[in-house]
Write a structure and sequence with these properties.
The protein is of the alpha/beta class and about 350 residues long. The chain contains eleven helices and ten strands. The strands form two sheets. Strands 3-2-1-4-5 form a five-stranded mixed β-sheet, with helices on both faces. A five-stranded mixed β-sheet has the order 8-7-6-9-10, with helices on both faces.
Length: about 350
């Protein structure tokens, strides 16, 4: 792609990987002109989690409206758009296809480049929007409902996974504990809020792999330990102190994440740690990582931690500048890994 450094590039971005229908408009990658998000939380609360078919149908109902709202808010028209960025994985395949099909139709009609973006790489890019001074290389801790990774971010489009969960993601464990406690959906923010009222030392839950040399995680044992504790209390008719359970569980998760993040910084030699993903909104995690000495810590505002299209537009902008664009043959890749490029 030709060098466009002196041109103001307008990126239209679309995100529909799960249960948020989102569209954003950005100028030169980091300036957000509009960031519209329609959430389906109220719809899926009844079921205690996201129902894929319902999510897809709701995306179909809302996508056109959200795009129109974003363009109006940004004060631009389709003719002003230079490129179309869209999430093509990972995520729910039906949900992904709604956004991808819409983006392909726009790219074809407007004769503009289609930039397929990895959703998780988008979460990393959210930090570029929030922090104008941030640039690679750095170590990134990605914590979400489906992913827990430590990533060596070598440049804007080059990523190496240096640590990952071997079983459950941290966010998945948060949601499972919240459901078992009957706290509602989404459970992570509720656990975080209740943890502030409890004693993190009340219950000694396991902290797997914290002292091992590798950078991988494991949270299935912790999840099972909490569930066994709750079942034992109920069988013995012992009153459950919910804030203490939340605080102790969250403390165990955060201690592991903090230790592995510090280890990653030591191994890579970086002094910059970036936090990304939905669980990056967790106040306890932010505070704990902030205690690490001699590092620069970055994390996005809450509005950019959850799924949004601004982060997809930012990641897409840098991909386009690196000559990484897709075609109308690009398909959804629900199990896409960080660093993979699976678009035609």
């Amino acid at each position: 792609m030709a060098n466009m450094e002196n041109k103001k590039i307008i990126t239209l971005a679309i995100e529909t990987s799960c249960d948020e229908t989102a569209c954003a408009v950005l100028r030169n990658g980091r300036e957000v002109l509009a960031n519209e998000v329609h959430t389906q939380i109220d719809i899926h609360q009844t079921f205690g989690g996201v129902v894929p078919e319902i999510a897809s149908r709701n995306h179909l109902d809302k996508i056109s409206e959200i795009i129109e709202r974003a363009l109006e808010q940004a004060g631009v028209g389709f003719d002003d758009v230079d490129e179309i960025a869209v999430t093509y994985g990972p995520g729910l395949v039906g949900a992904l296809l709604v956004g991808l099909s819409t983006a392909k139709a726009l790219a074809y009609a407007l004769e503009k480049p289609l930039i397929p973006v990895n959703h998780i790489e988008g979460h990393i890019a959210a930090n570029y929007i929030a922090h104008p001074d941030l640039k690679p290389p750095f170590a990134c801790l990605i914590v979400s409902g489906g992913h827990t990774h430590l990533v060596d971010v070598k440049d804007y489009t080059t990523f190496e996974i240096i640590g990952r969960t071997r079983d459950d993601a941290a966010g998945e464990a948060f949601d499972k504990i919240a459901r078992t406690l009957g706290l509602g959906y989404p459970g992570g923010p509720i656990v975080d809020r209740l943890a502030k009222e409890g004693n993190p030392m009340a219950i000694d839950f396991p902290k797997a792999m914290m002292d091992q040399d590798h950078l991988d995680f494991s949270f299935s044992g912790l999840k099972s330990a909490v569930l066994n504790y709750l079942n034992s209390c109920r069988m013995k008719q012992v009153e459950i102190n919910v804030p203490d359970v939340c605080a102790s569980f969250q403390h165990a998760v955060i201690e592991v994440l903090k230790a592995k993040a510090a280890q990653a910084l030591s191994q890579t030699g970086y002094d910059t740690l970036v936090l990304a993903g939905g669980v990056a909104a967790n106040s306890g995690l932010r505070a704990s990582l902030g205690q690490l000495k001699g590092i620069k810590l970055y994390y996005p505002p809450i509005s950019l931690c959850t799924d949004n299209a601004a982060m997809i537009g930012c990641a897409g902008y840098y991909q386009a500048r690196a000559g990484q664009s897709g075609s109308l043959a690009t398909n959804a890749v629900p199990n896409l890994k960080i660093g993979e490029k699976k678009y035609e």
